[in-house]
């Protein structure tokens, strides 16, 4: 599976549950340290998403 960028509605995320039945949480304090395009380029090279 290759990383992919796309759109998601927050209302769709609200309905997702993980393995333990816990909902997805948003990090309201997230600050990007690089452009999304750079993250996407790196993910494509590595064929995975890394923090």
Automatic annotation (TrEMBL):
Top-rank taxon: Bacteria
Pfam short name (any one): DUF2958
Protein name: Resolvase/invertase-type recombinase catalytic domain-containing protein
The species this protein was found in: Inquilinus ginsengisoli
Phylogenetic placement of the source organism: Bacteria, Pseudomonadati, Pseudomonadota, Alphaproteobacteria, Rhodospirillales
């Amino acid at each position: 599976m290759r990383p992919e960028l796309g759109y998601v509605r927050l209302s769709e995320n609200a309905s997702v549950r993980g393995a333990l039945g816990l909902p997805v949480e948003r990090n309201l304090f997230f600050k990007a340290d690089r452009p999304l395009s750079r993250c996407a380029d790196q993910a494509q090279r590595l064929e995975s998403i890394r923090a």
